[in-house]
Amino acid sequence: MSATTTIPAATAQPRLRLGLWLETLGAWTLAIVWAAPLLYALWAAIHPTGYATRFELFAPLTLDNFAAAWNAAPFPRYMLNSLLLVTFVTGAQFVLGTLAAFVFARSTSRLMGLLFAVVLVQLMIMPDMLIVENYRTMRALGLVDTVVAIGLPYIASAFGIFLLRQTFKQVPRELEEAARVEGCGTFGILWRVYVPLARPTYLAYGLTSVAYHWNNFLWPLVITNSVETRPVTVGLAVFASTDQGIDWPIISAATLLTAAPLLLAFLLFQRQFVQSFMRAGIR
Amino acid sequence: MLITRRAALGALAATPVLAAPAVRAQAPVQITFNYPVAVGGPITKVIDGYCADFERANPGIRVRPVYTGTYQDSITKALTAARGGDAPQMACLLSTDMFTLIDEGVVVSWDELPGADKGWTGGFYPGFMENSRTGGKTWGIPFQRSTIVMYYNKDAFREAGLNPEVAPATWAEQVSFAQKLTKRQGENTTQWGIQIPGNGFAYWMFQAMATQNDVRLMNEAGDRTSFADPKAIEAAQYWLDLSTKHKVQPPGIVEWGTTPRDFFERKVAMMWTTTGNLTNVKTNAPFPFGVAMLPAGRKRGSPTGGGNLYVFKSASPAQREAAVKFARFLTEPERAAQWGIDTGYVASSPAAWETPKMKEYVAGFPAAAVARDQLPHAVAELSTHENQRVTKALEDALQSVLTSRVQPAAALTKAQDDAERVLRSYR
Amino acid sequence: MRGRATLHAWLMLGPAMVLLVAFTHYPVVATFWHSFFSTPRGTRPSRFVGVENYEVLAADPIFWQALTNNLIYALGTVPISIALALAMALWVNGRILGKAALRVAYFTPTVLPMIAVANLWLFFYTPDYGLVDRLTRFFLGWGATNWIGSRETALGAMMVIAVWKEAGFFMIFYLAALQAIPPVLYEAAAVEGASRWEVFRRVTLPLLGPTTLFIAVNALINGFRLVDHIIVMTKGGPDNATALLLTYIYEVGFRFWDTAQASALTMVLLLLLMLVALAQFAFLGRRTHYQ
């Protein structure tokens, strides 16, 4: 399928084989660099403090760091908050994005084209950059220190609307006509025809969005005050800025604990994830 | 010892108030108490315990502790909440936040509160009270306080032929010790003599050197600074010389967060850092270590640091009364002594150090008393109006010096000009 | 019937548009408005000051430094991220040993929380016994380098982390694009006896054009947005060597409490992004894939 695989093996010259060999070396070196923080976190998390900076093969193993990290902050509560947050944000993004994208995909009027351009402004100006004003708005709405406030600025997502519109545009009109003949209304068509066909887009966009909001830091830090609302990344910050210097084993353990759900999800879904990107036409 | 006796009397006088059952009949008074620690850490358990004990002794009062993370997060939270009309009644915040809190108009002075008499507020170390008073009023009660001390590796001292029981007492000694302690292999240095961290709290470290060189960086009203004083410039030069001239400190900015680790790894033989690190060093240093007062330039000196208790304007009269009771409860000598032992912070009143419990602890672990012995030389931590902005001007100047971009005189003159521009409107 | 369809359309569009306006468009306008007023402090209420906030900004050397840093940061990370993402995608899509493992390795940075990872990077950059120094000593014989404590290297060190964070994510887009290229094209090229390099340059690269544009825009936006690690690791130091516009906005707005000044700063950032958007529409117009 790709550049490398389609070249018949017979034509491969020795120089080429050397090239491939070098490329493999390069690819793996890069992979090690890319995975290094995770590998280091694994090392530091399962060894006593003294070995955080000394790499000896037979260093004693321990799970104390995980216990210490788990006890250092109310992680179950933080996890719950993060879970509520990503569910709320992604769910709302899906609903609002689907409705808006449906309109944009089917409309040909110039007004809608203009409105779509207005939506696309958000691709450039992310809510991250408007923390001061958005904080003011949240205070006016009385939403400071709520999970809703963390998610609200993000749920109308230009990126999501854009992706779904692209997908919806590819849906053949005949399918819609057929559904209409069978007596489906506008919402019926949307629900029965468009949404099922856009499943890969939902998966690709959903995972991206979950990863983003699970790890988002600055806005949640600013808008939340209490244990009951803070997501897990803000909880992690308590290990990051201490008077007493940095304790790498504990931070490593905490990093692994918080990233575990996402890492697992990616490992499980990675094939579908990449394929959904392809099918979603995000390219 | 006059102060000690006064404090003891103050504590005695407080006892009947605490025990008075007068409030029992009324609906419980609730106060929210913001505390600047990471949630769930060991200190939260201590504070939770204090709140529970206090409630048992005062059935009419409920104290709800809220743990707000770092000092920086805590002041952000307190101010945003106050601006939104939702301030806590009481909070432990940096002593240096005093002017900010006053300027924002969110705190009340302790003198205006019922039950906070001069006997009690006068019972703390004067070194700590410097940051707690301005314009003749007391705005903060010292509680979670610290100061800078020197930690050194006794093994390294022995190897270098130094007496492991004697730390450098002067700037000159500090340099000569550090030279002996610096180990080189060709181009590389395997062990540095000294590290004074240059980020995070650079202004704090610098203030120690400035104080030792006999210059005060700001006035009591917090509206004037003297960053460009020749003695301050000299202090910055001394710090820079450790790296560039004597080559006993790593060049560039020494990271605050990794300094204790550098010490444990024997990459550095002496380090300056907060007394708050005592427990950390005690647990993790794989060699015998010493704790010493910072060496003297023209004189000894170190700024204090850490948190004070503040009462917010939003508190009702009943809540204000409850807040005073709670603060007095927290600072009782016995409790303050135990607090110091448990956490490594410096118990804030002389009376606490006179308790049998504390005397016994110090006898077994003399390093704990170094911070206290240094207190007579201590000055208030740098604090002005618009504190963060002024501090940042100084930090930037120091970092430009330490990275050898700007000469100390030019850098500090610029910092002084920046501070002037900010502070002019507050005079 | 047409009226009802229009009503439906507006109802479906409504919630998204209201929220978009409330949290993107309105804040932009409000920021603009507030940038002409002073910050209220305690007893001193806010008042109209004209362009004073912008004058203060123009006279503020830290602002100019942050702006310069940010341009270096954005223009430096974009091409490197794109090149690496493309290389990763080609490798993972090719016949290299252990493709699945490579894919996971490249993608991990995307799912790791930056706030925690920044602290692990702090260890990598620690002078002397940090990972980077150990490697440079072993392979190159270098001495200890204070990577994030020197003005010369700090911004570069931060850019490395940004590239590390985003390249794997961009790889996914390239991967999807590569897999959608019709095999027929490669077969045709093979018949003509084209070399691998020629195939890549004549067939693959042109077909990846729209994807590259999409990634470039995203990378450029990230160049102004990806600052979590800087806030954790250097707070913009040493001596503002790593200060970027967004870190400076955070500092002025939430540490100095000078919201007016922060508003003026935000406007500068928005202006830059609008220029990016305009450039994109003007130069590349309809050739992008959202037609």
TrEMBL record, chain A:
Q: Where in the cell is it found?
A: Cell membrane
Highest taxon listed in the record's lineage: Bacteria
- Bilayer-crossing residues are 25-46, 83-105, 111-131, 143-164, 248-269
Regarding the membrane, this protein is recorded as: Multi-pass membrane protein
Write the record's keywords in alphabetical order, separated by commas: Cell membrane, Membrane, Transmembrane, Transmembrane helix, Transport
Q: Does the keyword Chaperone apply?
A: no
Matches recorded under Gene3D superfamilies = MetI-like
Family, according to the entry, reads as follows: Belongs to the binding-protein-dependent transport system permease family.
Protein's name in the database? Carbohydrate ABC transporter permease
**Source organism (scientific name):** Roseomonas indoligenes
User: What broad taxonomic lineage does this protein's source fall under?
Assistant: Bacteria, Pseudomonadati, Pseudomonadota, Alphaproteobacteria, Acetobacterales
Automatic annotation (TrEMBL), chain B:
A single GO cellular-component term from the record reads: periplasmic space
Pfam families from the xrefs?
SBP_bac_8 (PF13416)
- Give the family per the record: Belongs to the bacterial solute-binding protein 1 family.
Q: What is this protein called?
A: ABC transporter substrate-binding protein
Domain of life (superkingdom): Bacteria
Q: Which UniProt keywords apply?
A: Signal
Q: Where in the cell is it found?
A: Periplasm
Q: Fetch the Gene3D superfamilies from UniProt.
A: Periplasmic binding protein-like II
Q: What is its main location?
A: periplasm
The signal sequence is 1-19
TrEMBL record, chain C:
Question: Would the keyword Lipoprotein turn up in this protein's UniProt record?
Answer: no
| GO term, biological process aspect, one | transmembrane transport
What is the native source organism of this protein?
Roseomonas indoligenes
Q: Where is the ABC transmembrane type-1 domain?
A: 67-278
Q: Which GO terms describe its cellular component?
A: plasma membrane
| Subcellular localization | Cell membrane
Which PANTHER family would you find in this protein's record? ABC TRANSPORTER PERMEASE PROTEIN (PTHR30193), INNER MEMBRANE ABC TRANSPORTER PERMEASE PROTEIN YCJO (PTHR30193:SF37)
For this protein, the record's CDD domains field holds: TM_PBP2
Family, per entry = Belongs to the binding-protein-dependent transport system permease family.
Topology versus the membrane, per the UniProt entry? Multi-pass membrane protein
Instruction: Report the InterPro entries cross-referenced here.
Output: ABC_transporter_permease, MetI-like, MetI-like_sf
Q: Which Pfam families match?
A: BPD_transp_1
Which ranges does the record mark as transmembrane?
A: 7-28, 71-92, 104-124, 203-221, 263-284
Q: Which UniProt keywords apply?
A: Cell membrane, Membrane, Transmembrane, Transmembrane helix, Transport
For this entry, the protein name equals: Sugar ABC transporter permease
Assign the protein's first listed, main location to one coarse class: membrane
